[in-house]
Design a protein that fits this description.
The chain is α+β, with helices and mostly antiparallel strands and 58 residues long. It contains 1 helix and 4 strands. The strands form 2 sheets. It has a two-stranded antiparallel sheet with strand order 1-2. The protein has a two-stranded parallel ribbon with strand order 3-4.
Amino acid sequence: MRTTTLGTDGPETGVLGLGCRGMSYGYDMAAPRDEEKSVAVIRQAIDLGTTLIDTATA
């Protein structure tokens, strides 16, 4: 995976990341969550070389 440096002296990370807000209750508190699928997606992203995993709520 191509990488880039965050900021001037920041860490090097992949140019693609995984946004995880949809795996939480960030969009809809009533919507069902599939924890096993979320964990599988995160593991596959890591296996494919993802180093940026965004867990921010906003």
